[in-house]
User: Fold these one by one.
Assistant:
Number 1:
Amino acid sequence: MGGMSEPFSAATPAPIGAAASGPATRVGPCTQRRAVLAALPGIILLPGIASACGMTEPAQPPSTVQQTTTVPATTVSAAEIPVGTAKQFKAGDSTVIVAQPAEGEFVAYSARCTHQGGVVQVIEGMTLRCPLHGAEYDATDGRNTLAPAPRPLDVVPVSESGGQLTLG
Ligand code: FES
């Protein structure tokens, strides 16, 4: 076909039901619809028709990489966070979760849920949960451990000096 791009033909249908095999092969409703049409005998989908199903699919999945954020500089006492626990603090208008996963090792995260911005709460020890839709995180490193959180909590810089922790 001189000068025209190759049409999406029935010879190469996308696999139907591939969504069950994980995020790497996730298929959106438009892709599934195109695959069903392409599988029908005698149906050839031209590119313009294939993209006109009326539903948009994200070009890329959301980032799953942990990010860093800052909050207004705030000082808290390290003694308030025993080893193996996490605690919530206010830093300006932000809410921060500070944890001590190992003796003398302090970590801090924004308490803003990476799903839709709920304020993550400390449930017990290092377990964090968002009250809005139930996403859970591990305060050891902020990783998301239960859906629907799409990525870990944002890291907040923290430094320790003389028993005082500076957040921000
Ligand atoms: S906003 Fe936190 S789970 Fe939805």
Note: The first strand starts at residue 74 and ends at 77.
Number 2:
Amino acid sequence: MSSPTTSARNFRDYIPLYDEFDYTVDDFDGALPEGLRGTMYRNGPGKLEAGGQQLGHLFDGDGMLSMFALDEGGLRFRNRFVRTKHYRHSLGAKGAPYRALGTMRPGGILTNALQFPANVANTSVAMHAGKLLALWEGGRPTELDPDTLDTLGVHDFDGGLKWIGAFSAHPKWDTTTGEMYNFGLAMFPRPKLACYRVDRAGTLRSLGHLNLPVPMFNHDMGLTAKHLVFVVAPLVFPVGKMTGAGLGLRNFIEAIEYDAARGTMIALVPRDGGRPRILHTDPLMHLHLANTYEDGSDTVIELVNYDATWEQLNGQLRGLQDGLTDTALSYGGKLMRLRVTPTGRVIHETLSDLQGDFPMFNWARTGQRHRYVYLAVGADGNRYPNAIAKIDNETGKESLHRLPEEHFTHEALFVSRPRPISEDDGWLLVVTQDRVSELASMLILDARDIEAEPVYRGRLRHHLPLTFHGTFTQRVARP
Ligand SMILES: [Fe+2]
């Protein structure tokens, strides 16, 4: 285990960004590559405050979309908060207007009992069937206008999402059919993952569900030619703690427990919704999968494994949130490959000793064997992500794009060249932040050679709180 990282300054990585901007970036080096035209959207908590109350967890802040439109005129930036009920009520409230995952409302049990966390639409963003959707795994998507980022309202796929309608933040696309697959976590009347397919036209169909043995937390999924792939870490909501959370005695984040004895559950759910194949393996602690694919009769899963408990991982998140210097772990986990054989063996292989998260790959390879994975890494034991790594699964080569001292990076998004000649023939769009000047930039790296200087660096006029996930569309947002 790494020793605690110390720093002379107590940086605040999560400074709220209350202002909403719309401008063309005029301070830049290099040029936008020919062939890179379209729009990157990103989502993350834009403010960790509601009604003057500091929110309790990084996962609780109001979702704010940022938009980076690239065309002949250059790079245009726009940001808008998602006008959820939580956001709207937070503006005039005294204290948090609703409970959130890690935040209690003022007023004790009376105001918190039997209250679900509010949908803050802050985790990811997807563009599907012409709709731009802000995603949050505990509830329904929120639709926004892809040009103005105006909030259009909650989207339930014409009533396809029932009741709470959880629709996770990590859908996957079949690149041949254009279908989007996703799941939603449901706790009542029994714990399960509801599975969905949304066709190209945006029509949602249920693919049945995967029963969970007890209430558990799951964040991501994979898609292969045959299966929806779930790797469920032993993160459980014990009955006593869950009851306490429901009654308003503790927050929901504190109700999660890492139960290593349970091991990690792998479920391969047939894409037509047939009976899932369930396996168990040694306990892993992960949030994100990279790619998954069928390799002959094996199923291969890549994920980022933390050699840590939930409390330790949560400590890392808290360190990022508060700019703490006392977090005991350096940032991130290690890229790992699981190979599920027909006999039910699960072979574990660590692919790199780099520590990072936010795995990215060329999404055109979804469900097929891929060669490259990109990660936001904490190089040299850093406690926040300060470099982008490229890991070559064929040669084992690792290359790093290190940021200057005291800069951190958001997730890197891979965008393919229009007619690519190799899997890495494209660019990485990387938002970074200088923690000293508190100004953000967008870098464009040539994905074939990420160690080289960025081909473009556009400096924003302000900071940008760390975003979680993003997406890219070739459609250029209109000014
Ligand atoms: Fe995520």
Note: The radius of gyration is 21 Å.
Number 3:
Amino acid sequence: MGIVTTLWGVGVGPGDPELITLKGWRRLQAAPVVAFPAGVQGRMGVAEQIIAPHLKPQQVRLPLEFPYVLDENQLQQAWHIAAECVYDYLQQGLDVVFVSEGDVSFYSTFTYLGSAVQQLDPTVPLGIIPGICSPLAAAAVLGLPLTCGGDRLAILPAMYHADELTQAWGWADVLVLMKVRAVYPQVWQWLQTHNLLAQAAVVIWATTPQQQVYYPLTRWPALELPYFSLLLVWKYASPFRSDKKMGHFTI
Ligand SMILES: C[S@@+](CC[C@H](N)C(=O)[O-])C[C@H]1O[C@@H](n2cnc3c(N)ncnc32)[C@H](O)[C@@H]1O
């Protein structure tokens, strides 16, 4: 007979601990083992910080190492080691909840962890509870609709070039750039060339105490951005867009 315990992936939202779903919170409360990406240099990881207020002392906390590298072999190895740690608990009859910042199906490590666990044992059931992902959080912070009417939305992950932006902009009405830190100066130039700076915003650490907003981007050609930053640009002015949200502000 196969495994009867479940590996749960729970999206815990973009930062504010109140932005976890009721279903996610209940699943978290019921979990004997709670896994999350380990933080760097002894600091808590972001998902761990979000759930820390919700955890009980008797719950096992399982930090899993996922290196920030592009090397496929190193990544595969890390996913395999993490999967073995998780599988140990599943075999003991204990459910494991893996928490992911934002949503668990949206550029999340859970995808790789779940697949590595199922490579060890294809009978392990995976349960998924979605969370609020960062583009939705950023739109809420700005007080703007992300999309409306027939808007076509493009979301680009890391490592894009100006050509990719131009191509996506050819069909999209709203563009979201994840992991924008490394390419911000090039993106700013591209926005300037296409006369889009007035319709573009950067949101840093959305919904957390470190949150910052830069909108519009006209005055900000050289921002030093942290990893948790994203950029949004709209093709058309929205009827809900409000001037009071403009400038650089923190919460
Ligand atoms: C690996 S992706 C994780 C996405 C996440 N699973 C989600 O649902 O949003 C990491 C990127 O998401 C974006 N991001 C995630 N949370 C954010 C936040 N609170 N504020 C701003 N950007 C965020 C940043 O662009 C960051 O580089």
Note: The first helix runs from residue 22 to 30.
